[in-house]
UniProtKB/TrEMBL annotation:
Gene3D superfamilies documented for this protein: Periplasmic binding protein-like II (3.40.190.10), Winged helix-like DNA-binding domain superfamily/Winged helix DNA-binding domain (1.10.10.10)
Keyword list, A-Z: DNA-binding, Transcription, Transcription regulation
Name this polypeptide is given: LysR family transcriptional regulator
InterPro entries tied to this protein: HTH-type_LysR_regulators, LysR_HTH_N, LysR_subst-bd, WH-like_DNA-bd_sf, WH_DNA-bd_sf
Domain HTH lysR-type intervals: 1-58
Native source organism of the sequence: Weissella koreensis
Molecular function via GO: DNA binding; DNA-binding transcription factor activity
CDD domains linked to this entry: PBP2_LTTR_substrate
Family: Belongs to the LysR transcriptional regulatory family.
A family per Pfam: HTH_1
GO cellular component: cytosol
Organism lineage string: Bacteria, Bacillati, Bacillota, Bacilli, Lactobacillales
């Protein structure tokens, strides 16, 4: 399967007709039709339903179109980074958890871009499982994760900073006057928590209850929408790390002072890092040294 033909197919999928795609690609319609048929023969599946007007993709065609976009983006990025050996340019894609701990990564990026202004950064948010899958498939260069403890197959750097875990409450919440939140209070109120299993295990250990015994009203992958709940409901507790919600209506109260969250940046183990990626790691380590 040639990259060129994959580009042809993606244009057909995006534009909806072979005629429009041929015009954009500056080739003849018969030549483009022939290339698509060769691709179908190579794959052994039908990609286009030519009997329908307008043209439609088959299920296999829909799947290939989604994959083709990822493949072509990765190919373009790889070529760009390979050509950047002498002058450091290119794009670094980082999957990132939502946390103030990411500030050290931003500081390293800022310093690096001051030296290499042609370096661009693509930040990707998502659940840990989704981001790990993207990292494993080469769609991320680095992944910044909280409390990541499955490091055996990756190269990694643990960040020195730590951050408190706690509960976010509406100022009218009955427990908003607490200095620290006793674990038994978590059993008395509806909770909003991350889907990350680390948090479920942590709350279970903290309260000596199974996760099913807790009154969990909402779970989330990303906190952006979940923070609206304690703003509107003065009874719920949103469990998370400090610094995620800055609002005059919300108060953060720490939980177990002995347990804090830490950040780790990981990447796939390989002896052949590009010059661009090596520079990023260098500037990150330098930023960490400045904090010591």
């Amino acid at each position: 399967m040639e990259i060129r033909v994959l580009k042809y197919f993606l244009e057909v999928a995006n534009l909806g007709t072979i005629t429009a795609a041929a015009n954009k690609l500056n080739i003849t319609q018969p030549a483009l039709s022939k290339q698509i048929k060769v691709l179908e023969n190579d794959l052994g599946v039908k990609l286009l339903d030519r009997e329908k007007k307008p043209l439609r993709l088959t299920n296999e065609g829909i799947y290939l179109a989604k994959q083709a976009e990822t493949i072509l983006n990765l190919t373009e990025k790889t070529i760009l980074n390979i050509k950047s050996n002498d002058v450091i340019t290119g794009e670094i894609t980082i999957g990132a958890a939502e946390t103030p701990l990411f500030s050290i990564i931003i500081a390293a990026i800022n310093t690096m871009q001051n030296v290499y202004p042609n370096v661009t950064i693509n930040l990707v948010s998502g659940s840990l499982n989704d981001l790990l899958d993207r990292l494993n498939h080469g769609l991320l260069d680095f992944l910044f994760a909280l409390d990541f403890n499955v490091k055996g197959q990756y190269d990694f750097i643990d960040l020195p900073q730590k951050i408190r875990r706690g509960a976010y409450l509406n100022l009218d919440h009955p427990e908003s006057n607490q200095i620290s939140m006793p674990p038994n209070k978590l059993l008395q109120y509806p909770l909003v928590i991350s889907r990350n299993p680390i948090w479920k295990d942590y709350l279970g250990a903290l309260t000596n209850k199974t996760i099913n015994e807790l009154n969990i009203k909402m779970t989330f992958n990303l906190i952006g929408n979940a923070i609206l709940y304690p703003k509107l409901n003065s009874n719920v507790m949103l469990i998370g790390i400090e610094g995620l919600i800055e609002s005059p209506e919300i108060k953060f109260i720490p939980l177990d002072e002995k347990t804090t969250s830490t950040g780790t940046i990981i990447w796939n183990h390989t002896p052949f890092l590009s010059a661009l990626h090596e520079e990023f790691i260098y500037y990150l380590n330098r930023q960490i040294d400045d904090l010591k």
